[in-house]
Amino acid sequence: MITSIAWKNVWRNRTRSLTVIAAVTVGVFAGVFAMAAINSSIVQRIDAAVNEELSHIQINHKEFRSSSDLKNVIPEPERVISVLQNIPEVTHIAERIIVRGIASTSAGSTGVEVTGINVEGEEEMFTLKTRLIPGTGSYFGSETRLNSAFIGEKLAKELYIIRYILTEESLGTLKESGVPSSVVEKLKPLEDQRFTTEKKLTEALAGLLSAREAKEYGMMIREAAWSYREGSRIILTFLDADDNQTGAAFRICGIFRTNNDLFEAMSVFVPENELRRLTGLGEGEYHRIIARLADNDLTDRVTPEVKEALPGLEVMHWKEIQTDLAMIADYMNQIYGIFMALILAALAFGIVNTMLMSVLERTRELGMLSAIGMNRRRVFTMIMLESIFLSVVGGFAGMLVSGVVIAITGHTGINLVKYSEGMEAFGYSAHLYPTIGADFFIMLTVLIVITGILSAVYPARKALQLNPVEALRGE
Amino acid sequence: MKDYQLAWRNLWRNRRRTLITAASVFFAVFFALVMRSFQLGTYEKMYRDVIESYTGYLQLQHTDYIDESSLDNGFIIDPELISMIEGDPNVTAVIPKLESFALAAAGSRTQGVMVIGMDPENEMKGLNIINRLVRYRLTPEAVEALKAESLPDRTGKLLDVFVNESFTDEASLISILGIGRPDTSDVLPLFRKHAAFKNGYLTSADSGYAVIGNGLSEYLHAGVGDTIVLMGQGYHGATAAGLYIIKGIVLMPQPEIDNRFVYLTLDDARYLYAAPGMATSAIISVRDTKEGDINMTRNRLGQITGDGLAIRTWKEMNALLLNQMEADNKSGAIMIGILYLVIAFGVFGTVLMMMAERRREFGMLVSIGMQKGKLAKVISMEMFLVGFLGVAAGVAGSLPIVFLGYARPLRFTGEMAKMYEDYGFDPVMPMLLPDTYYLWQVVIVLLILLIAITFSVRKIFKMNVINAVRA
């Protein structure tokens, strides 16, 4: 009974109630959508970290990660593998050799981590191969299996294997992809010129195009001009097992592109046997064994099992390796909760104001209700319910709208590449596919109801303080 | 009665509503300011750390060095140019620096490193690497010895958490180990006795010595007195190799620098890389460090550098860091934007209610001869005053927190600090003093008010007096 009275009361002043409800709707929608967008970049980052960079669980010699000493190989790797194979949640296992060294070309040199992989054995697990830039080769292509290297785009840029040339063909592609011919015409003077860095090309473009054109089409032009020196070689230099300097030339068989510049700039993958030969490591000696699980949520449960089974080795899951990401992953729900609470607190001011006004203008009515016998608790409940209705109706509308918008944008994606250069350098994608867990909505619903209750306290107290006799006399 | 008096009295006719509306504005402004101050303060500290220990505010470089940071884009130091730069009123020191890549090895452990060659005495005029020397280290032996002494309970327990941790100053030691102010004078001498770390720094006369980053030292398992081998490619492809004794260990800001930092004297670095008389850059330290001063100094110096050389600001040299912070900054700005959106709705809702409630009053006022223009003016003033009240309260409320946070940055202690460090963050949260970001909050609130005022003024002018009086 009280419930239906309260509901009807809400709609007695439609405009006023709708304004508050609209405020809650907009606030909840904006908050949820922002959270979903931020969440998506974190989820994508974790995905990339686990699938492309670290894998779920890594097993190293106890000293290896803190020193990367070539001699710190895993004792009895067969035992490690059999332990992992006996865990049903483990889907893939791979053994690797890892050597730190210098990669150089005639134009530059930089420090890298060279990883020797079992080319055939790891093919299924090596998700990075899907990140291959089309036209740069393949995952350890057929002809020269020996001495080939799979490297990141950032490293290729640092070693000047990638440069920028606008050929007749690339100008044609630009036209096809919708760049106005007036702009393409302006690019003619640059045809067949070589630019060693993206920046030099951008500077040249700035001289020819208007600022607006450069902003609008700069990205497309840079993509079209991107070109790769086929059959490039890099020299990898490192220390072998006897501490002698060694090295060899490797042919680039493919270049991959991820969202993580740091990882791209550091990583070189080469066939394991070649690296074994160069470093003088024995057959069956490995520095690291990585394991992929069926699902990321299993990580926290499976890792202790592996740790227990392999006491003398360093067993780590990705959260222990990439701690900054782990902090974000572990605390993101709390952070979202705090932010939503902040928004709801701001909304509460509006609800309090509305409820207070609604109570004060009903002084006479409330007095009458008490006079004819409605007890104080019922009055309190009625006001409380009105306030909860305001927040819950707005909250649900907001969640509904955001649910729909997240579903749509989660499918089409939001491209922020133009606005955020910094994200990719850090490993976060600028293509967002908003997504958020169902538990977030449950938490949000609780928060919304709490907001309704808290913002009713002050107005409801005001209503209780009314003296029926004076209230009836008023006005 | 003056218009503003009328507006002021009107406000207090419904005290509760005025206060709640002002409170909602206060809430948003206060939160936005405190949050911004923390966020911007953290960036500022990060920038300052990198500038003061690594890049300096300005650098003289070969024009191509910024794109291709290789030794081959180095240049011969011209003493005449250096003294001309030193003659600039805002320049305090010019520090030639030779920086290149090498592979460092100790025993059979190797790591790619940045080798930096500078003249130590000259360097101290502009950078403060010496302040980053590790002063205390909680080695397992130190922890044992400290436990035997009488320590506050909490500190004793925390020692186990921070085993093998290094500290550069007593302030962070005190805060991280949760040493209370009254205990400081008793406890610090114990730490000085047991946990002091023997460390040294380069002098200009040194040859064959290096100062390395704490992270690198841990990685190579090489401490003070140990020898490291540096191998790399010298100028124009010459082979570079040399042996150096570690003289000191510094804790550099940012793990990327700390894990790769090797500091030699300028002469040693030139010899190693077969680049006599050369530098890859010259750090120019300046007196006034405001952005405008930096740019003016850059422009003045740009005119005397001559062909092939350029003056770069710290912003150009740290473009990546700036970009990252910018991306992070945007997410903060979006959150504050949403907060203000919600507040705007709240304010708008209140205005809507107020207009409906006072319709009769307005109708009456106009019918007894008040001009609609004057009425609109009074109402606008009312709203402006409410908004101003909120902003003023927000600014006033945030100022003590911001000044306190600036003077005594919030430092996490104990397990919380450990967690921050494990996650790769400095356990300090400095705040930024009021700056343009304060002005922005005022502008945003003014915009919100402007919309609300426009709406109500239109309502007043469109009001039908007869209907309004009857309402």
Describe how the helices and strands are arranged.
The complex is a heterodimer of chains A (475) and B (471).
Chain A: H1 2-10, H2 14-54, E1 57-60, H3 64-67, H4 77-85, E2 90-104, E3 109-117, E4 148-152, H5 153-158, E5 162-165, H6 168-176, H7 181-187, E6 194-195, H8 198-208, H9 211-225, E7 226-228, E8 233-239, E9 245-256, H10 261-266, E10 267-271, H11 272-279, E11 288-293, H12 299-309, E12 314-317, H13 318-321, H14 323-361, H15 363-371, H16 376-412, E13 414-415, H17 422-425, E14 431-432, H18 438-465, H19 468-473
Parallel strand pairs in A: 3-10, 4-9
Antiparallel strand pairs in A: 1-11, 1-12, 2-3, 2-8, 2-11, 4-10, 5-6, 5-7, 8-9, 13-14
Helix pairs in contact in A: 1-16, 2-14, 2-16, 6-9, 8-9, 14-16, 14-18, 16-18
Chain B: H1 3-13, H2 15-55, E1 58-62, E2 75-76, H3 79-86, E3 91-106, E4 109-118, H4 120-123, E5 136-137, H5 140-148, H6 153-161, E6 166-167, H7 170-176, H8 184-194, E7 209-213, H9 214-220, E8 227-233, E9 239-250, H10 255-258, E10 261-265, H11 266-272, E11 278-279, E12 281-286, H12 291-302, E13 309-313, H13 314-317, H14 319-357, H15 359-367, H16 372-407, E14 410-411, H17 414-422, E15 428-429, H18 436-462, H19 465-470
Parallel strand pairs in B: 4-10, 7-9
Antiparallel strand pairs in B: 1-12, 1-13, 2-11, 3-4, 3-8, 3-12, 5-6, 7-10, 8-9, 14-15
Helix pairs in contact in B: 1-16, 2-14, 2-16, 2-18, 14-18, 16-18
